[in-house]
Amino acid sequence: MVLLNARSLNQFRLEKYVVVPLPKNIIGNGNIENHEELVAYLQQAKQKLQSNCRNITVAISQKQVSLQFLNRDEDTEYTEEEQVMAELSQYDSLDDVSYDYQNVSTDNQGRENLLLVNSKREDVNILLDAYTDAGITPTQMDVDILAVMNSAITWINIRQPDLTNKCIAVFNIDYNETQAIIMRHGKLLYKQEINLGYDHLMQSLRRNYQLTEEEAWDMLYNPSKPEDYNSTVAQPFQQQFIQEIQRVLQFYFTSANQESEIDEILIFGYGNNSANGFTDNIRQQTHIPAQQINPILLAQPGNSIEQAKLQQDSSLLTVAFGLAVRGL
């Protein structure tokens, strides 16, 4: 959970944040497998955050939604609503679907680009029931992968506006997996999930140094590491990750969705993990410039936030930051 305050569109203040690890048996493949346990952990996180903020944006997993980008010519005879309804005709009844759409961009020729998101209403209701039972009332719902995109767009707008119209590959490293996104000017061109995340690093640490999961997590963020950490743990993970990056790029370049060459690679979630030389290796093996970023560090931390702890946790907050920015 992330609580943001905004002085302007480009000035954020991180008032508070909370990270509560979930046991593996609560969420599976985007689905809630244990409602009562999830409610208990949501209540625990809410209590830790101690906020009365009512402007709450939550995420649904991309595994439970359909994302479409629809092109509309200026002189089309159909309204936006009619075009969206045609796309949703796959459902037997609109009572079975939750959907939303918005205009993402309009080009110089007046062609609109609409983003349509839809999901089974049952899946949305199951998620909302968990929040309701935890005493949380969302004002809006987003998709986790769109929250990652929102974090990327926010970072680009503030730190590197020259990338605004460029084709960007974003890799957000999460606990169990990595979300791979190729985007241009707010439009999702390609997405893929990579079965490689922090859990792989954790298992390598536990295996090589006979640690518990908690000890492995502490070592991952501790500046002082064993002498052979780089060669034994970090470099094999980085090389495996670069191979996955190359695989994603290959799929993108051979897909029907390819629109342009990739100008920059952004790595979210790996900036503080002794990743010396990581972006150099990516650049050498893909011939594309690369940067390591944690977007939430754009925000000015509140007085109660410990800087060192935020640096440690920042890699886990990309989705929550993207949701909070949308709610501002």
TrEMBL record:
Pfam families: PilM_2. It comes from the Bacteria. This is Type IV pilus biogenesis protein PilM. PANTHER family: CELL DIVISION PROTEIN FTSA-RELATED, ETHANOLAMINE UTILIZATION PROTEIN EUTJ.
